[in-house]
Structures are given as C-alpha cells and as structure tokens.
Amino acid sequence: MSVPPELSALRASIDNLDAALVHLLAERFRCTQRVGHLKHELGLPAADPVREEQQLARLRVLASDAGLDPVFAEKVLGFIIAEVIRNHGIIAEGAAVGSADEA
Amino acid sequence: MSVPPELSALRASIDNLDAALVHLLAERFRCTQRVGHLKHELGLPAADPVREEQQLARLRVLASDAGLDPVFAEKVLGFIIAEVIRNHGIIAEGAAVGSADEA
Prior knowledge:
The structure is a homodimer of 103-residue chains. The first copy, chain A, has 103 residues and is an all-alpha fold. Chain A has one domain: Chorismate mutase (Chorismate Mutase Domain, subunit A, Up-down Bundle). The first copy, chain A, is built from 3 helices and no strands. In chain A, helix 2 runs antiparallel to helix 3. Chain A is elongated and about 55 Å long. Chain A starts with a helix and ends in an 11-residue tail after the last helix. Chains A and B meet through helix 1, helix 2 and helix 3 of A and helix 1, helix 2 and helix 3 of B.
C-alpha cells in the first residue's frame, strides 16, 4: 500500500526527531553514569528527593511553555529517571550498595 | 548542604539536556497530532504495526551507534508511543473511533 505524501513527510519528521531524542538520551545517560560514580567516590547518598522534585517542577514549566502536556512530560521524564535508577542499581551491584541512584 | 562543584556541573548538563528533550517531545507530539488528524481525514487505519516495527528496529541501530543501551532506548520510545496512543484515544473520543493512533 502506498503512503500518502503528507503522511510520509510527517513520518520523516518524526524519524528525525526520534534520532535526536536517542542522541540526547545517550548524552544524558553518560552524565548520569558520571554522577553515579562521583557520588560513590564522595560517599554521597544515592537518592536526592529534593533535587528530583526540583527537576520535575522545572520540567512542568518548560513543558507548559513548549505547548507540551506537563503531565505527559512528567510521565516521560519520570519513566527515564526510573530506568536510570534501575540501570544504576545493576551497575552498583558490582561496586557498593546505594552508590549510583541519581537520575 | 552544599553541592560539590563537579556534581553541580553535571546537574547543569542534565538540566540542559532535559530542556532539549522537552522541546523535542513537544515537536514530536505536534507531528503525531497532525498524523492523527490526517489519518482521520483520509480514512486510514489508526494503527500501523509494520511502521512501528520499522521505527523500533531503526531506533535500536541508532541507540547502539550512540552508545545507548538499545533495550533502554526501545523502552523509552515504547513508553512515548504508548502515551501518544493513549492521548490520541482521548482526543479521538471527541471525533471518531480509531482515527488517531499512529505513534
């Protein structure tokens, strides 16, 4: 089945945006990995609920300004943070307990 | 409690990346909303499993090239797609059934 040209054009834009999202996520993950190792070195607590609440509050404002549903944005970032914490947990199993949870 | 400078610097990078992610998500959502309306106008089926599988296969390659865990990338995009479909479902309730599910 042939794809209508306008749909094809929109899909090309979505594909470009997804490629950009993947590269930003890759860079974000590099940063959080370095945070995890740094906190382990400094003996800092793994989780920081105050920081996390600041991140989500800022995100809601940014999303609203960008015309994105703030609830949707918060869910997506919340999901990313949860995955990062989970992945850090896997990494930390080889090092020390509670060393790398910042998201 | 004061934040160590290196941690503070990493957090500033994470905040910048999150702002970029929010804006990309906002633009992606604009595209998928237009796809939803277009498919409704053209009477095309809401879901396209072949397209979705192509998206995820491409994403795995991109993630791997960018040094991002492909499983993590697929989970994040899968989550975004599921949320888009859910949001489209809410929008479609006011229009016609099955009009706007492309993600």
